[in-house]
UniProtKB/TrEMBL annotation:
PROSITE patterns: NUDIX, NUDIX_BOX. InterPro entries: NTP_transf_6, Nudix_hydrolase, NUDIX_hydrolase-like_dom_sf, NUDIX_hydrolase_CS, NUDIX_hydrolase_dom. This is Nudix hydrolase domain-containing protein. It comes from the Bacteria. PANTHER family: BLL1166 PROTEIN. GO terms for molecular function: hydrolase activity. Gene3D superfamilies: Nucleoside Triphosphate Pyrophosphohydrolase. Keywords: Hydrolase. It comes from Liquorilactobacillus hordei DSM 19519. Belongs to the Nudix hydrolase family.
Amino acid sequence: MKVFGSKNIGVNYFVRKGAYAVIFKNQNEIGLIRTHEQQYFLPGGGIEKGETAEDALIREMLEETGYSIKNNYPFCHAQRYFMSTLPVKRPMLSDGYFFISQLDQKIQKPTEKDNYFEWINIKECEKLLFHVHQFNSVTDAIAHFVETPTCIDVFLDDGDKLQLIEPFGTEDLVKLNVRPIPLFKQDGEHLNVYKKRIKSKNWKAKWSKLSIFLE
């Protein structure tokens, strides 16, 4: 588990456990919630008494977006110490459980009137997301793309410096190699997901020099 921010000795932090979804669209965009204060967060929210993290995420998605979600994969647990200003100013520990999820069906109208679900380019996430541990979860989620050469993102930071997210390095991309990430090599079920994806993408027909490894 990664921890962000500083825990000051003698300070009583209000702990808010929450569940949040990283939802990709075509590996270029991610779904974020924009509040009426023009702040951006990952979809999700606080875990209520008696709920599992996944139960809370499903409920919060319906309240914030009106959409159901599916294939919820827990992949990250991270915390952030910070000074909250809304609804009151107080020291807070945001204790987040993160899932990679897929948007499913529109079930209802959102019940939270001041939240707006928007597709945002991944390159904008570091600048827009209010919580650093939520941005960290986005970079971790990229490491869960199926193939090593797709687990890469490039963006400009606030200082116009090029930043590279490459959890498995760039060698496969440069050498035109396609292989499954370790997660999708762990058993036959995961490996079949990779093989079906390779077949559906038909990359070899577009880029004849690709070397595709099936294990």
